[in-house]
Amino acid sequence: MTAFERLREEVCEANRSLVGHGLVTLTWGNVSGISPDRDRIVIKPSGVEYEALTPDLMVVVDLDGRVVEGRLRPSTDTATHVALYRAFREIGGVTHTHSPYATMFAQARQEIPCLGTTHADHFAGPVPVARPLTAAEVEADYEGWSGRVIIERFAALDPAATPGVLLAGHAPFSWGPSPSASLRNAIALEAIARMAHGTLALGAPVPLEPFILAKHHERKHGDRAYYGQSRTR
Amino acid sequence: MTAFERLREEVCEANRSLVGHGLVTLTWGNVSGISPDRDRIVIKPSGVEYEALTPDLMVVVDLDGRVVEGRLRPSTDTATHVALYRAFREIGGVTHTHSPYATMFAQARQEIPCLGTTHADHFAGPVPVARPLTAAEVEADYEGWSGRVIIERFAALDPAATPGVLLAGHAPFSWGPSPSASLRNAIALEAIARMAHGTLALGAPVPLEPFILAKHHERKHGDRAYYGQSRTR
Amino acid sequence: MTAFERLREEVCEANRSLVGHGLVTLTWGNVSGISPDRDRIVIKPSGVEYEALTPDLMVVVDLDGRVVEGRLRPSTDTATHVALYRAFREIGGVTHTHSPYATMFAQARQEIPCLGTTHADHFAGPVPVARPLTAAEVEADYEGWSGRVIIERFAALDPAATPGVLLAGHAPFSWGPSPSASLRNAIALEAIARMAHGTLALGAPVPLEPFILAKHHERKHGDRAYYGQSRTR
Amino acid sequence: MTAFERLREEVCEANRSLVGHGLVTLTWGNVSGISPDRDRIVIKPSGVEYEALTPDLMVVVDLDGRVVEGRLRPSTDTATHVALYRAFREIGGVTHTHSPYATMFAQARQEIPCLGTTHADHFAGPVPVARPLTAAEVEADYEGWSGRVIIERFAALDPAATPGVLLAGHAPFSWGPSPSASLRNAIALEAIARMAHGTLALGAPVPLEPFILAKHHERKHGDRAYYGQSRTR
Fold this sequence. Notes:
The structure is a homotetramer. The first copy, chain A, has helices spanning 3-20, 78-87, 100-108, 117-120, 135-153, 179-201, 210-221; strands at 29-34, 41-43, 59-61, 67-69, 93-97, 129-130, 164-167, 172-176. In chain A, β3 (59-61) and β4 (67-69) form a beta hairpin. Chain A has an 8-stranded mixed sheet, with helices on both faces. The first copy, chain A, is built from 7 helices and 8 strands, in the order αββββαβααβαββαα. By secondary structure, chain A is of the alpha+beta class. Chains A and D meet through α6 and α7 of A and α3, α5 and α6 of D.
C-alpha cells in the first residue's frame, strides 16, 4: 500500500469513528489529511453518511481546493481546511465537528478557559475564539474567510501548542500532526469544553496556575516528555 | 413493491429508529407519511413498542383521520398529523417526539433562538412556540386543536423554511418532504435545542447574524445549494 | 408455569432491565412484585449484580418481611416495599432506584412540578416528597419508617393517580399494577425529572394548565381512555 | 494461577472496564493494585489504549516506584499511587480517572457535599479537596507531591471511611481494599458528583442529617452491616 493509500484509509477511518466518539449528529463533521509532500488533501465527501464511507469515496483536492480525484463533491468546509494547511505548515490533519459542548462555547463566543490539567494536557492555554465574519466576507467567500479569521487569531499563537479554535456562532476546528491526531484533539476539546461548562456552573472558577499548566503540557509534549511510550511523534 | 408499500416501510423504519437516535422514552413518539396522491396517511399504532413494529402493523387513515386499513388503533396524535398534512401541502412526513431538550423549551414555552450555524442549517430562524390551548378547545377536540394552533402560528411563516414547532407545555412536531426527512429534522431540532440550552447557561447569548443565517440556510437549501451531492430534493 | 413462577420471572427480568434503562449504577436499585393472593412478595437479593440474577435467586418474603424462600438476603429496602404493599392494596409491583434526576429532586427535597403533558401522562399532579425521618425513627426502624412516611404523605393522595414519591435526601420509589408497570413508572419518573430540571434552568416555569393535565391523564388512564390498544389494564 | 498472576489480571480487567463505565476519555485513567506482602505494585502502562491491554503488558514497580518487571513505561501518575500505598496501609487498589463530574468539582476546588444516602453509602462525609501544589513542589517532584498533599489532607480523616479525594485543578483519586473495590469507589464518586452537581443547580441544598449519614454508612460498612450477602470484605 502506498503512503497515499494509507492516508485515504486513515482519513476514511477517522471520519467513520466520529460517530462512536459522540462528536457528530447527522453529517455535521469532517476530517481531512494532507499528503507528505503537501500537494494533495484527502477529505470527506459532502453530506454522505459516515457508515457509507469507504477509502475510495474520499475526495482529493489540491491546495487551491480544486477536486483532482473522486466522483463526489468534497465537504462544503473544504476551503477552510485548505486555508489551515496553507498557513500551518506543520499540521497533517484537520477535524471539524459540531460537537455539543465545544459548540456551546462557540455559540456563546467565549473562549474555553484552562481550569484543569486535562485541558493543559492538550492545549497550552485557553481555546481561542476567532472573530465573527463581516457581511462582506460572508458574501465574498464564506468558507475561505472562515479559515482566514482563524489564521488572523493565531497571529501570536503557536498552532502546535494550541491545536484548535472556536469559530464564533459556528463550531470548533482542531488539527494535529496527522488526521487521527486531529481527531484525538477534537475528542479532547469536547471533553474539556464539557468539564469547563460544568465547572463554570459551580461558580467562581479558578484558572489553572501557569506553572502547573506548563508542567502538564511539557510532560506530555515537551522535549523531555515522559507521558506515553517512547516513539516518534 | 408499490409506492404505497415503500411508504409503509419507510414509516415503519423511521418509527423504529426513533429509539436509536435517543428521541423517545417508552412509546412517546410517532412518525407518519402521506401517499403521493395525498389521500392516505400511514402512521404508527398507539402504545405499541418500537421494536415490535412491522410495516403491516402500520395504520392507514384518510384525510378525515378515519382508519381505512389496519387492525390497531392509530396514534392518539393522529388528528394533529392530519391537520398538518391538510394545511401544509408540500410536506410528505411528520415526526412527533418528546425528545428531552426540545421538550424543555416547549415546557418553558420559549422559542429556541438561532444562536449558531447548526441551527441555521435546518431552521431559517427561531423555532416557534404555538399558543396554549384554551379549556374549551381541549374539551372540544384536543388533538385537532393542537394542529390548528400550529397552523395559526405559521400564518406568516414558511413551513419549508421552518420545518418544526413547539407545542406549549407539550413537545415538538417536525416535518419534511418525506417521513425520513421529518425524522432528520426531529434529530436536528433536538441537537440545536440541547446546544441552545447549554449556550444560554453560559449567559448573554448572541443571536446569529442574519447574513450568516441566510448564507447557511441557502448553501444547504437554496436554489444554488452546494451542500451534499447533486440530487432531487 | 404457575402464576408464582411467572411472577418470579417478571421480577427478575424487571431487575435485570434496570441497567439498560439507565436507572441504576452499581447495585443501587430493586424491583419487587406481590402474589395475586397478596401473601408473598418476590424481591431482588441484596448487593447482587443485575447480570447475575436468575428467577431462582429472587428472595420470597411474607408480609412481615420474613424470608420464606431463597438462600440469599433480600434487598435492605425490603421493609419499605412491604409497608407499601400493606398500605396500597391495589398495587402489584414496586421499583426503587437512585436514578440521577429523580434523586437530584429527592436530595433537593423539592417536589417535581407538573410542567408538561409527558408528566401528566403518568402522574396526575406534582411528584410529592415525603418528610425527612427523625433521629428516633432512623434508630428504631429505618426502612420501616421510610415506608411509613410515604404512606403518611399519601393520606390525601391516590396512589393509582400518583404512582411514585421522592424520599427526602434519598431517592424515588414508584409502583404500579405489576412489577413491569412499576418499572415503566420509574422510567417515566426519571424522564420527567430530567425534563423538569432542564425546564427550571430556563427560568420562570409555567405549571401545566389543570384542564390539560386532566385531559392527558384521562385519555391514557380514565374510563374512556383511548391511548394504546384495547386491553385489560 | 498464583496470587500475583491474579492481581495482574484484576488490574488489567479493572483498567479495561474504565471505558464501559464512562469514566475515561482517550487514555485519561489508570488502576493499580498492590501484592499481599505489599512489596510490588501492578499498574497500567502509560498512554496505551484500554482495549489493547493484556495482563502481561501491566507494569510492576517497587515501593520506590522503580520498574521491576515489564517492557513499557508505567503510568505517569505512578508516584502518586506509590505515595498512597505507603501512607494508607489498609488499601489494596487505587483508581485515578478524569471522570467528568468529579473533575468539575476538582476544577472548581470545591468538596462534594453529602446531600443524600447514595453518597453516605460510599463516603462517610464530604469528598475532600487536597490543597493546590506550590510552584516549588511542581518543580521538585510533581507526581510525588500530588500524593503528599492527599496524605496531608487525610491527617484527620480515615481513608477507609472516605475512600477518595479530589486534587485541586486536576481530578479524583479513589482507593479500596482491592483494585476492583477502588474502581467501584470511582464509579460511585462519579455518580454522586453528578447528582450533587444537579442538586446544587436546584438551589438551597440541604446537607444530609448526620444520623442518616451514619445509618447508611453503617448498614453497608459497619460491624453489623446488613447490606449485601455475608462475606469477608
